Amino acid sequence: MKRTWLALVVAFSAALVMLIQDGAFAEKPKQDGKTKAAAKTETKAAPAEASAPTIQIDKTLLDNGGTVVVTGKAPAGKPVFIEVWAEDAVRASRFDADADKETGKRPYILYLTEEMPAFYRMIVPKEGKETLEKIKKEGKSWSFSKALKDLGADQAYSVPAKKKIERYQATLMGSIIGSRGTLLPAMDEKENAKRSMQLVKARFRSPGVVLGAAVDVAPDGAYKAEVKIAHGMAPGKYFVAAAVDKTSRSETVTVENKIGFPLIYLNNAGTSVNIFGPFFLTLVIAIFGVLMGAGGGFIMNPLLVSLWPLPHTVVAGTVMPTVLFSQGSGIYNYSKIKFISWKLGVAIGLAMVAGGFIGPKLTELITLDQFKFVFGWILLVLAGLMFWQTTPGYLAKNKKEQAILQEFKKQAEAAAKAKKG
């Protein structure tokens, strides 16, 4: 009997030791910080990671713009956004002088990038057409960041957000002496993206230029869209990519845009123009401008800004050297008929030197709308003044001016006869 109990105790003890060694009574290790039960639950619920969308284009070469058909496939049920941008880069700037809503203080900060794509466009699904039309109706008060959010495209916005942006603490005195101001520390990624959206609006101005609703997405995720590169855009490479969110993005495909004479590309303006248009316009204006004793630049500025998609800063800078040609020939011809007062000319010329130094710096601190507003009023005042000086009442009171005009006519006729003889 004793042997039987002893055998049972030994067998039980051996079984217990084996169970302990097998870990039956030990605490099970957690799997990635979770219990076994939780891990089982997660295994059942964990979805597969969404794959990146694919992308193809129907052509890789354009002749002065055209339409590229983009197709591909994205995860089913996901909206597809297409980003298009040019390899060529231009300058974009924005002067922030808006009063802070809380403090009422104005920051006077100049934001500047030299890396803004010469062409940029975000294309959203067709369902966003109605929303895009509402954004267009907001006029000048539209916000690019708000537009992206309303269209659901803020998750796909990428390219301009990564461009380097400098910011300067500007002052009026600094601008006068030729300085943009004090360079401030670099911004973090989030702030850089925010300011890039403001620079996109400052550069392209209209929501219809940078936004489009043309992506047709099928229930199975297949999508198709037409990307239009307008005539006169920058030559070179254009990149196209599709995205469904920040982490799911297709590879980038490339299309080449070529231009030829009479189109010429303006690097600092980011656009191309037919050279014959500005040439013949300038010919007419130069004749009229020199007749009035001017170079014609004050007429060229508003016309170039209105007729061609050129930034007002580039127009102002481009017109300045062109005036040298009309002024040079005008000075020569007026000196032959002795109608130049060199003392007065040198005196007011010194003032023009100072103005010519200050003006270019101030162009960075004003918008196109402000430029047009100020220039428009100056032209209206000048037009009104000149019209008033041609009225019979004014001429009757200013017989001296009539005598000057008559003398001018006589000398011009005499010079013409001398030239023929």
> Structural class from helices and strands?
alpha+beta
Oligomer kind: single chain
Order of helices and strands: HHEEEEEEEHHEHEHHEEEEEEHHHHHHH
Terminal residue distance: 157 Å
Low-confidence stretches: 1-49
Structurally, the number of domains stands at: 3
Number of strands: 15
CATH superfamily of the largest domain: Macroglobulin (MG2) domain
How many helices in DSSP terms?
Answer: 14
Q: Overall 3D geometry? A: elongated
Q: Biggest sheet, strands in spatial order? A: 1-3-11-10-7-4-12-13-2
What is the rounded Rg? 35 Å
CATH class of the largest domain: Mainly Beta
Provide the β-strand percentage band: 15-25%
Query: What is the average of the pLDDT values?
Result: 78
Can you give me a brief rundown of this structure?
It contains 14 helices and 15 strands. By secondary structure, the chain is of the alpha+beta class. The protein folds into 3 domains: 44 residues, no CATH class; 208 residues, Immunoglobulin-like, CATH 2.60.40.1930; 114 residues, no CATH class.
Describe the protein's topology:
Blueprint: H1 2-22, H2 36-45, E1 56-57, E2 61-63, E3 66-73, E4 81-86, E5 89-96, E6 109-117, E7 120-125, H3 129-136, H4 144-151, E8 166-169, H5 172-176, E9 182-183, H6 189-204, H7 207-210, E10 211-217, E11 222-229, E12 236-243, E13 253-258, E14 263-266, E15 271-274, H8 276-291, H9 297-307, H10 312-336, H11 342-363, H12 368-388, H13 392-397, H14 399-420
Parallel strand pairs: 2-13, 7-10
Antiparallel strand pairs: 1-3, 3-11, 4-7, 4-12, 5-6, 6-8, 8-9, 10-11, 12-13, 14-15
Helix pairs in contact: 8-9, 9-10
